[in-house]
Structure formats: C-alpha cells, structure tokens
C-alpha cells in the first residue's frame, strides 16, 4: 500500500475534487467516519458543512484540511467492506480516528485506490499536529496495515504504479475537458517525478499531450514569471485555450517548479543508477538505429525525447524513466550515454559492406559542406567537428526521418530571408 498525504489550502477544493469524480461516475463515496448522517443521503453542501463548522472554531490555523490517498497493487481485489476497514484503521493509526472524514473509492486508474478527506481541527478547536506525519505516523501505519490485511508491500508496489496509473490518459482536445484533463496530468507528475529543469518536466508532460508554456521571451507572461499549461495535438502543436498555473488546484507555478528543481537535485543518484542499468541492458542488444533504440527503451517503460536546436540539429537526448519516476539527459548519466556516444554505438556494431564502401567512395567529395546540403528531413548530429569516415558511414545508414518538426517560425524566417535576398 502506498500512502500519500497532502494539505490543501481549502477544504472545498479537496471535497469538490472527489465529488465531481462521483458525478462523472468514476468514483463513489463508500463511507464516512464520525458523521451522524447516512453518507449516501448527504449532498455536497452537507458534507462541506461538516468540515466548515469545525474549521470555524480555529481561525489561527493555516492548515485545516488533510487529503489522503491510499493506493493498492493492481493485483489486489478489494471490495468496499475491506477498503473501508483499511481506511478506518489507517485514520485511527495516524491520529484522525475521532475526526470526521469521507472515504471515496476512485475507479479511473489502473490500480485500486482511495481518497480520504478530513479536517485537522478537533471538536474543542485545537489543531492536530501534522508535522512529519507522513514520515512518522503514516509510515508506521502503512507497515502495520500491510501485515494486518496481507497487502502488497510498498517497495514492490512502487514498481507497479507506473505513470499509466495516474488519472490521465493522453489528453485529446475536444474529447476531454481541457482544464480537468491538464490538472490530472500535472498534479500527478509534479510530485511523483524527479526532474531538475523546465525541459525535463516538459519531457514527462509531453507523453500525455500536455506542455508547460512560459510564452514568448518578449511576451507579458514570460516577463512576469508566469506559466500556462496547454494541450498538444498528435503532431506536437499547441491547441486550445491555455490554462493558467494558478487556476490548477496544486498551483504548479514557475516558482513552485524551481523549488522542486532544487529539492530534486539531492535525490538523483539512485534513480540515475537504475536508468543506467536499463540503458546498458538495451545497448547490449546492439540496436542498429535510433528508432530501434527508442523502441527497446519503450518496452522498458522509458520514453525518449531527442533535443533539437532551431537549425534542426539533434544535440541531446532526454530519457524519462516512467518506472522509477525520474528524468535525465543522457550526458548526466555518463559520457557513454550522450547523443554522440549513442550514435557511435549504432554503427560500431554494424559490418561495413562492399555496398557501403562504394557509397562512401561515391559521396566522399559531395559530402563536403561546400558542395552538399543535407536533406531537410535528415536528422543531423552536431559533433562539433569535421565529418570523418565514421560519421559519413552513419550518414549513409541513417534513415531519413525527422523526430521533431522544424518550428513554423523558423520556416517563416527562411522565407522572409529568401525574399529579401531576391530583392538585393
């Protein structure tokens, strides 16, 4: 069982999140604790009043709401009676056994899980101390409950709860509600993954057709440190109305992300070694091309992003390890995993055929940059040096595929430049 605790600023947000799931038939309020009315007869406002009446007793407390999620292995089949028993035991063990709370079973993920909403304010107006509750009370309760109910241990379950278990499938514009779909993706990614840059954060989001956008460098949003989130179509183009970071319940603003970058920097070594092991296993299979490498990594639940500059040259590789929830640039893992080294790996394992030798001889002159311009669709690996025989061989055997579209703005600039040249 994996337990996660958050402290929303307002109880109405946490309660509304679960109640809207109920309205969409992807969740059910299966019970409550220390509430006099029958839960299935209570409406949203009655449930909200239970908490607001207690919260009003303490005006000084800044943290009054606790929102817990209990996540179980996809292999576990737990009925409502057993889920309620687990919820009651957990709340008792973390010190909330006498507090009112509502228990929701969510049905929109690949694993069974519960959400519990409660208040930190007691009947006498005092506040329950929640300092280090996740590390202390919750961790102790989790271990005891796993043994008591025979649940899959957290260590094993974390390997099972990959990103497909978050509330978001790929966001499809026009098919899903934009704001809620974006929020589902962002809320799950922002706390689950280890990333240390804006680009790495976006590498995770783009798997789900979502992107964090700071706007144009000369624009108002960028200058004021703002951030919006947008839906991407299948071609990677931004579509639909942008959603402000401040409008999402977890407030995933640029300031929060920068704080995450710093915190995550101290937690990189273990996930880096795990990803290195995966890369070594895949490279030992001697993939013959970038496409084959990406396919093999995908089978290991690793998503690959090739970084490309404005001229269309691929200068780096980013790897999203969805199993261990971490993002790394290839060069961060080691020199042997940079884009240049990985490229070298492809053709070192390939025999030099007579046909390749003939092609190399034929193109040895025309490959000179003074006589030859590569195809616009040909991916270019910028090694920062003159083309040698090995690089020429790779050029000859690399399929003519582009991994990312050339930005439209760049194409427009080219056209304007050509027009200007004709006027000279």
The largest β sheet comes out as: 5 strands, antiparallel
CATH topology of the largest domain: BirA Bifunctional Protein, domain 2
Series of secondary-structure elements, N-terminal to C-terminal: EHEHEHEEHHHHEHEEHHHEEEHHHEHH
| Oligomerization status of the protein chains | single chain
Q: What is the first-to-last residue Cα distance?
A: 71 Å
Report the C-alpha radius of gyration, rounded: 26 Å
The overall strand count is 12
* Tally of separate domains: 3
Overall shape: it is globular
Q: Indicate the percent of residues in helices.
A: 40-55%
Which CATH first-tier class of the largest domain would you pick? Alpha Beta
In terms of DSSP E residues, the strand content is 15-25%
What integer is the average pLDDT? 81
CATH architecture of the largest domain: 2-Layer Sandwich
**Which structural category do the helix and sheet elements fall into?**
alpha+beta
Low-confidence spans = 160-169, 359-390, 395-415
Q: Give me the number of helical elements.
A: 16
**Order of the strands making up the biggest sheet:** 1-3-5-4-2
Pfam families: Relaxase
Protein name: Relaxase
Organism: Ilyomonas limi
InterPro entries: Endonuclease_MobA/VirD2
């Amino acid at each position: 069982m994996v337990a996660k605790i958050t402290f929303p600023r307002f109880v109405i947000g946490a309660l509304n999140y679960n109640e809207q799931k109920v309205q969409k038939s992807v969740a059910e309020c299966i019970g409550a604790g220390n509430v006099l009315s029958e839960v299935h007869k209570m409406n949203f406002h009655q449930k909200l009043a239970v908490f607001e009446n207690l919260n009003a007793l303490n005006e000084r407390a800044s943290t009054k709401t606790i929102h817990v999620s209990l996540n179980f292995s996809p292999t576990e089949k737990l009925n409502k009676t057993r889920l309620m028993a687990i919820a009651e035991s957990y709340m008792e063990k973390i010190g909330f056994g006498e507090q009112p709370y509502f228990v929701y079973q969510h049905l929109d993920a690949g694993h069974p899980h519960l959400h519990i909403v409660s208040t930190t304010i007691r009947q006498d107006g005092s506040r329950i101390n929640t300092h280090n509750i996740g590390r202390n009370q919750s961790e102790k309760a989790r271990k005891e409950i796993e043994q008591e109910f025979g649940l899959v241990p957290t260590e094993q379950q974390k390997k099972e709860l990959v990103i497909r278990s978050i509330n978001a499938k790929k966001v499809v514009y026009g098919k899903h509600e934009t704001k809620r779909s974006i929020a589902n993706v962002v809320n799950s990614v922002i706390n689950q993954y280890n990333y240390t840059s804006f680009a790495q954060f976006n590498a995770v989001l783009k798997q789900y057709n979502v992107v964090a956008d700071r706007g144009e460098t000369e624009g108002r949003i960028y200058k004021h440190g703002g951030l919006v989130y947008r839906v991407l179509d299948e071609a990677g183009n931004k579509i639909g109305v942008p959603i402000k970071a401040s409008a999402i319940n977890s407030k995933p603003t640029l300031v929060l992300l920068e704080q995450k970058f710093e915190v995550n920097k101290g937690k990189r070594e273990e996930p880096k070694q795990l990803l290195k092991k995966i890369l070594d296993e895949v490279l030992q299979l001697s993939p013959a091309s970038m496409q084959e490498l990406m396919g093999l990594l995908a089978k290991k639940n690793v998503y690959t992003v090739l970084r490309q500059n404005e001229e269309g040259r691929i200068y780096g590789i980013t790897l999203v390890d969805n199993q261990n929830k971490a993002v790394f640039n290839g060069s961060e893992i080691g020199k042997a995993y940079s884009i240049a080294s990985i490229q070298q790996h492809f053709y070192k394992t390939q025999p030099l055929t007579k046909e390749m030798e003939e092609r190399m001889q034929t193109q040895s002159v025309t490959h000179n940059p003074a006589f030859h311009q590569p195809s616009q669709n040909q991916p270019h690996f910028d090694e920062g040096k003159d083309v040698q025989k090995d690089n020429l061989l790779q050029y000859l055997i690399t399929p003519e595929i582009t991994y990312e579209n050339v930005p439209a703005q760049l194409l427009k600039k080219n056209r304007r430049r050509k027009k200007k040249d004709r006027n000279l």
